[in-house]
Amino acid sequence: MEQAYLTGNQTLAKTLAGVKESEANYHSQPEAWNVKETLAHLIAVERDLQAWLSGMLDGAEDFEPSSHANHSARLKGLVAANSRCRTLQSEIRRATRETVSLLQFVLPKLVERKGTFWRLSDNLTQLCGHFNEHIEQIAPMLLAARQATGQVSDPNSTSAPAASAPAAVEP
Q: Is the pTM of the predicted complex or chain greater than 0.85?
């Protein structure tokens, strides 16, 4: 998981290099997330995962990680509190480091509870994929923003991240 986060955060840094705040705020569709809301979602998922991990130590296993990380109000609140794209990016790096650190304390205590440990490992595997999927969606969002503002007219232009057709991210 640590390596997946490291790779994801490196990809995110490359994708967001030189991004303008207006690009990160751009909505391709009224209900679609923008770059900042996608970053906020990843932060919310990490926070929910950390709460779930902590609860597992107390025997609470009825909560699914990231079950509340799609709520529009929560994402808008995170964006409002961390309004700059680089602030959100820093918060993701901090949150993923915190998750990895927490796992170092949690895993030894849960390995004896086989069912719990299996459920945890299954969820962690899915969350790694989820993290990277959202990071991969950011380049097309930025391309859509640049096309909408006339900064890029050719989708194959080298002045924007290479990406396929812009994809809307829906909650």
A: no
In contact, 161 and 19? CB cutoff 8 Å = no
User: Structural domain boundaries of the chain?
Assistant: 2-148
Q: Cβ-count burial of 87 within 10 angstroms (0-12 exposed, 13-18 middle, 19+ buried)? A: middle
Judge whether 140 and 165 are in contact, CB under 8 Å.
yes
Q: Which fold has domain 2-148?
A: Four Helix Bundle (Hemerythrin (Met), subunit A) (1.20.120)
Q: Which of 123, 106, 1 is nearest to 55 (CA)?
A: 106
Q: Report how far residue 144's alpha carbon sits from residue 151's, in angstroms, rounded to the nearest whole number.
A: 10
Within 8 A by CB and 6+ apart from 137, the residues are 38, 167, 169
- Tell me how far apart the alpha carbons of residues 2 and 124 are, in angstroms, rounded to a whole number: 11
Write the pLDDT tens digit of every residue in 126-171.
887 888 899 999 999 999 999 998 887 655 554 444 443 344 454 4
Rounded distance, CA 117 to CA 80, Å?
A: 36
